[in-house]
Amino acid sequence: MAIRRFSSRTHRLDASFLLEHMKGAHSYRRIAGYFTSSLFEVAHELLEGIPHVRIVCNVDIHPDDLKVAQLREARMMGRWNEKAIEAEALLNRDRYRRLDAFLQRHGQAVRVAPDSVCGFVHGKAGVIELADGRKLGFIGSMNETRSGWQRHYEILWEDESPEGVAWIESEFDFLWNAARPLPDAVIREVHRRGYRREVVFDEIDDEDDVAPAALIESPLYREGLALQPWQQGFVTECLRHHQMHKVVRLLLADEVGLGKTLSLGTAALTLCLLADREQQARRPVVIFAPATLCEQWQTEMLDKLGIPCARWDTVRKVWLDDQDRAISPAGREHIARCPLRIGIVSTGLMMRQSAEKQHLLGLRFGLVILDEAHKARTRQGFGADAGTPNELLAFMREIAARSEHVLLGTATPIQTQPQDLWDLIGILHQGRGNFVLGNDFAAWHRAGEVLEILSGRQEVTSAEHAWELLRSPLPLVDSTREPRARRLFSAIRQDLGLVNGETQTARSLADLSEDTREILEDELHRQVSGATFFQRENPLVRHVVLRKRVSLEDAGLLARVGVDVHPDRQLIREPHGFDALFEAKALRTSEDFREAYREARAFGKALSARGQSLGGGGGFMKNLVEQRICSSIYAGLNTVRALLQGQTLCDEEDEGDAELAVESTDEREALERLLNRLEKIEADPKLAALLYYLDCEKWLELGVIIFSQYYDTARWVAEQLAQRYPDEAIGLYAGAGRSRLYQRGDSVSCERETLKKMVAEHQIRIMVATDAACEGLNLQTLGTLVNVDLPWNPTRLEQRIGRIKRFGQKRDTVDMLNLVNEQTVDEKIYDRLSDRMRDRYDLFGSVPDTIKDEWIDNIEALGVKMDEYINAQREATGFDLRYTATMAPPDKDWRDCTAVLSRRDFAVLMAAAWSV
Predict the structure, then answer these.
(1) Which of 168, 322, 180 is nearest to 772 (CA)?
(2) CB within 8 A of 340, min separation 6: which ones?
(3) Which of 260, 258, 282, 54 is nearest to 169 (CA)?
(4) How far apart are CA 437 and CA 540, in angstroms?
(5) Quick check: 848 pLDDT over 50?
(6) In sequence order, what E strands does 424-468 have?
(7) How far apart are CA 750 and CA 767, in angstroms?
(8) Residues above pLDDT 70, as percent of the chain
(9) What's the start-to-end Cα distance of the chain, in Å?
């Protein structure tokens, strides 16, 4: 029972130790180092013959992350992918295949333990149970790698004594019990890398493989994350339409917070690549979005999908990259010469006559995406313009007629006026999409004739009426997944002698066989889950994809994370401190603030007197100063001083470009009085409230994300907190290269990806962010959220809470604090909004995405308008059954994709400029 000592200087350790003892062994338990592809590089063949193998490895992820299976999976994948995958997979292909073969048989034989339990595992040891039943312990510095056993200087002690073996077994058992199973995603990735190969388009046979080949090594997947099943499902639906019609015309109407940007962005990439694969003309791709979302689009496309996009600056008349750098010459005409494959343009520019619009209408597009599409609508009211399309709707009809594919995105497909949905479907029907609603005489063009049928309030019972609805557009067999409906559509086409691609016919019911008419009548009397035939089978549900949050939660695809909404006296620990700050749901303010607010309102009234001279965004500019001082005193001071110094404030809004400069004496005097009051305010109550929650309510311990819609407010908050907590690393997450990291009285410019990684690794507990960057953030390691200001847009609030209310959140209920000042419009809006946020699991599912200026002007009507909207949403029907299939995980998991489009080739394709 003597101890034997080995050194790589005197022995070949793999031959003298491994080969001697592992042949025919009964079991092998090993404390190794980090889990790497080389884990079984040397001992693979020997381990294969051992019935019982257990190996515990190191993994440098936080213990809280280790507890949550999805986070454990994501963190390990992120760690693995920090190295260049291309070289790693090529050089170590055999190693990955050996490891894959072992894991396929013994997947549960490997566990991972966090650094917090054991630190870095330098103490390598193990126990081998030999064929004759003897146990042999060993301690040494090497991992199970070729370098460890053959090339490095290593030492090894072999100990057969019972006490020595028992000591090693005790150490192993502690680590094994503290560890967690190796995630399935890591096991799959081992296999993928073992068989990974780079391909060109010609080698991708199946259209379904185009998107995963391009995206499997995108930033999203390299972070260990993935597209959600319903996001992949939308891409699959796009491919179905591409196969059926050769063009894709779809409205994505998923509820707020389900990731429409990634769904639409992935679909855009897929359609681009399909066009290249089929060697079609490389036509421009354009994304139209409200000005406030353009930067978000650009950020998320790059940060998640790895797709560089150019963004049009309507003020400077130039294309910008994601760092706000000009990448084209300046001039209105250059909007038609985007230097990248995908360009992003503000819809505000389309809300008025402009040279840019005309330049765009001179192009033919491969794909057009319109986000927040419900803003393209028919004008309401009783004026001369009532019933006519607004500027955006008119423009989109023209541009859709000049486009191959058209995708529309909205979280509010049916508002108080059902006509809104027909406006959007009408866009899809233009140009090559003229099959969507059928011929010009089809009833589907006229909401009044079919709305009662779609809602289920009217049932179609006669075959004659049913045929009038069915014959144009005549459904394709593949347009439905319902077997009995497919049988009907197939029978009709056989009777009429039509090939499957034809969608319109003027033939009569008499041309159908008696058997087919019988099938039709049977279908008219059959309901599925209470839905009639024409609720399930109609042009609208064929071209509108709608998935609901509650359905995804019921299916187990989304975690049901609750939200406690603050301020709420019933939820706090320190009532005295709370009462000093809050009056009900609003912050107490000083007399100076209240007077300043009155002057801001007076300035807005002075602006209103100008009428049309404010331009398309005049309604927004009228409220700008008011909203800015309600955001923070600091932001208000910046704005007022800039205006008094003669600066012109420019902004892009949904209704057009807006510019604001002081013109009248009344305006200047109101601003001077406002400035005088703001300069007297000693402390912003929002900072005091923030500190109260961080300290007294212990939110700092839970981690917090703090949002503002204005960059100067966000930066002010970050700087104030950096002074208060000098030892904390505090992140400022913003677009256009303005992100920063603060600590110990200093700050540095910082990439967004660095900040995200620091949050994921629990190095940052306080993150301050602007809305411009919020879509790219996954902050489930933080448990609380503060809205420093209240955007007049509930959708924006939903996007914010979605940063922490997501998979991997370790808290069952997160906390959200909304800060509004007393006796302001913000307080009134929040009061109405909070009444409709009672359900802690579904705060915003049915509220409108934008609170309109006219609702604010008549604040008492705000609640009524919201309720009208909510009721209209509840009446919408017809989509739930059809799109259940697009929520489910796909049969082919993208994470298993081994045929990879090289990132270099991908980058070249995405960098192709528009040609005129």
Answers:
(1) 322
(2) 308, 309, 310, 319, 327, 910, 911, 912, 913
(3) 54
(4) 8
(5) no
(6) none
(7) 13
(8) 81
(9) 84
Q: What is the pTM of this model?
A: 0.79
Helices (H), 802-859: 825-835, 853-857
639: exposed, middle or buried (Cβ count in 10 Å: 0-12, 13-18, 19+): buried
The fraction of the chain above a pLDDT of 90, given in percent, is 42
For residue 280, the tally of other CB atoms under 10 A from its CB is 11
Cis peptide before 890 (omega within 30 of 0): no
DSSP string, 618-669: HHHHHHHHHHHHHH-HHHHHHHHHHHHTTPPEEEEETTEEEEE---SHHHHH
Q: How long a stretch of residues is the chain?
A: 916
Nearest to 806 by CA among 568, 551, 572, 552: 552
Residues 6+ apart with CB under 8 A from 201: 210, 273, 276, 277, 901
pLDDT digits (tens, 9 = 90+) for 487-541: 999 999 999 888 766 666 657 888 999 999 999 999 999 988 888 999 999 999 9
Residue among 903, 773, 760 nearest 72 (CA): 760
662 vs 613: CA distance, rounded Å: 12
User: pLDDT tens, 554-588?
Assistant: 888 887 878 888 999 999 988 999 999 999 899 99
Q: What is the pLDDT of residues 374-399, one digit of tens each?
A: 889 888 776 777 789 999 999 999 99
H/E segment holding residue 679: helix 665-680
Three-state SS string across 181-193, please? ECCHHHHHHHHHH
Angle CA(396)–CA(398)–CA(403) in degrees, nearest 5? 85
Euclidean distance between CA atoms 437 and 435, whole angstroms: 6
Extract the tokens encoding 225.
């994350």
C-alpha span between 867 and 847 (Å, rounded): 8
Q: Do 421 and 410 touch, CB atoms closer than 8 A?
A: no
The per-residue pLDDT for 857 is: 53
CA–CA separation, 111 and 117 (whole Å):
13
Q: Is the pLDDT of residue 655 over 60?
A: no
Supply the pLDDT for residue 467: 95
Report the C-alpha gap between 484 and 153 in whole angstroms.
71
- H helices of 179-281, in order, are 184-194, 210-215, 219-222, 229-245, 260-277
Q: Whole-angstrom Cα distance, residue 109 to residue 28?
A: 10
What HEC string does 844-904 produce? CCCCCCCCCHHHHHCCHHHHHHHHHHHHHHHHCCCCCCHHHHHHCCCCCCHHHCCEEECHH
Query: Do 406 and 368 form a contact (C-beta atoms < 8 A)?
Result: yes
User: Treating both helix axes as pointing N-terminal to C-terminal, what angle do 711-724 and 685-695 enclose, rounded to 10 degrees?
Assistant: 50
3-state secondary structure of 690: helix
Q: What pLDDT score does 863 carry?
A: 63
For strands 310-313 and 180-181, give the pairing: unpaired
In Å, the largest CA–CA distance within the chain is 102
pLDDT digits (tens, 9 = 90+) for 65-87: 555 556 667 767 777 777 778 88
Q: Which residue has the higher pLDDT, 855 or 699?
A: 699
Nearest to 717 by CA among 789, 642, 793: 789
Query: Hey, what are 717's tokens?
Result: 């908050």
Distance CA 268, CA 745 (A): 44
> Which residue's structure tokens are 């910046």?
638
DSSP one-letter code for 418: T
Residue 247 to residue 403: CA distance in whole angstroms: 9
Residue 675's CB is within 10 A of a number of other CB atoms, namely 18
* Residue 561 to residues 82, 500, 553, 843, Cα–Cα distance (Å): 30, 45, 10, 11
